[in-house]
Amino acid sequence: MRCVKLLFLCATLAAAADNDAPRRLAARALGETPLWTDLRALCDGIGGRPTGSPAAQRSVEWAVKTFRAAGLTSVTVEPFKIPQLWLPGTAEASALSPVQFPIRLAAAPFTASTHGALEANLVDVGEGSEQDFARAGARARGAIVLVRSKEMKSFDDLFAEYLRNDALISSARKAGAAALLLQSTRPRGLLYRHPMGLDGALVPLPAAVVSREHAERLSRLAEAGDVRLRLNLQNQTGGEYESQNVVAEIRGREKPEEIVLIGAHLDSWDLGTGAEDNGVNVAMILDVARGFQELGIVPRRTIRFALFTGEEQGMWGSRRYVERHRAELDNFVATVTFDTGSGRLSGFYLNGREDLRAPVNAALAPLSGFTASDHLIDALDGTDNFDFLLSGVPNLVGVQDPIPYLPDYHAESDTFDRVNQREQKITTAIASALVWSLAESPQRLRRQSRQEVEKLLIDTKLDQQMKAFGQWSDFTAGQRGLFQ
Ligand SMILES: [Zn+2]
């Protein structure tokens, strides 16, 4: 009798909110899980995986297989188009005179190849301001132009490195330069992929990041006299091509049409193995899904686990996802994105939505001992939340310590050994509890109208960044930001 009663009670509990779910999910995430096995398979076993490469394709197949092995039955591959292909090929350079030595460099994504090997004089244009180019005058015509850089120490420095792209390209082209060498912002020979365009369009000038120390030596030599270089950059370029997002879901028990999406990008640059950017969060999302599955937790709403590709090419995967699911957007309760490695999670970017603060804090309240409540109201343009934000969907992005992510950003050193394993386990616990709560809560957040989004962009000054990145006109023309 007692047994029967208990069974009945259990059945009732299973059909209703499982209020202990956040603690159970967190406890499981903090214990022994396949998180590191997955990350090693992705980073060491597959490696760097630029969208459009065979490695990217392998990572898509691996993600499907891993979701299925975790027990998820609804796993789909959603194809989409990216306008232009760019993949790295040969990148070689050497000094020919007054002294011969090889130069370490890495082609800058979305820039042109040289026509065969180029031999030309080097012209040092300092930090490459308009006045610097004016000073170089006719010497820059047909030359390989060296642009100097300050050492990168913060996200602001990294941001400044991107913001100078357009001015540099237009000055160099106006001056008739044959190629651009950009001094690495990281010391000790470290190279990284520095995209020179942010919308995937090709820049009609060969460009590469050159080792910081080699750039210093070249600059000193150029001060004393003529320096002649040989440069050979052969990138693979092409027109429109197909890539895929991998999407899995746990269908909600009461409101399966309402969706909470947690996402990270599966693609990476190729010099390293894309551990901090962003394999560690791919592995985390797989483990969050595995946790729900293992514990048999089915929340009120559907949880979608999205692994996007084409992020490094201009956030194409999430942009196309939003386009494809346009008719469903009213049903998106919230999206949660992680894209800054494994640094300590201190809170979330609310992306201009003050109404997200209370639900996030309520979601994390059951996790005594772990806080992530230092939220920032700032709105982000630069990862996969962006097209959701532009379409009025409530969206969160993890705020994390810049270490270990930043020094290895897009670099040769972005490898498995960099990951902060302790913090990533905690982030997995927090993310699990957060998506459960967003998917379970009786209240849901509201989608904004186009007018509200426009006001948000102006209030958060994101409009200024969008103008600098050439995205504002797309938004005002209705090509980005989808509303019924
Ligand atoms: Zn990233």
UniProtKB/TrEMBL annotation:
Q: Recall the GO molecular function terms of this protein's record.
A: carboxypeptidase activity; metal ion binding; metallodipeptidase activity
InterPro entries associated with the record: CPQ, PA_dom_sf, Peptidase_M28
Has the keyword Nuclease been applied to this entry? no
- The residue ranges of the Peptidase M28 domain are 245-433
What GO cellular component entries does it have?
extracellular region; lysosome
Compartments (UniProt record)? Endoplasmic reticulum; Golgi apparatus; Lysosome; Secreted
Which keywords does this Swiss-Prot/TrEMBL entry list? Answer: Carboxypeptidase, Endoplasmic reticulum, Glycoprotein, Golgi apparatus, Hydrolase, Lysosome, Metal-binding, Metalloprotease, Protease, Secreted, Signal, Zinc, Zymogen
What domain of life is recorded for the organism?
Bacteria
The answer on whether this UniProt entry bears the keyword Hydrolase reads: yes
Q: Which BP terms does GO give this entry?
A: proteolysis
What Pfam families does this protein's entry cite? Answer: Peptidase_M28 (PF04389)
Principal subcellular localization? endoplasmic reticulum
Q: Which residues form the signal peptide?
A: 1-16
Tell me how this protein assembles. Homodimer. The monomeric form is inactive while the homodimer is active.
Which protein are we looking at?
Answer: Carboxypeptidase Q
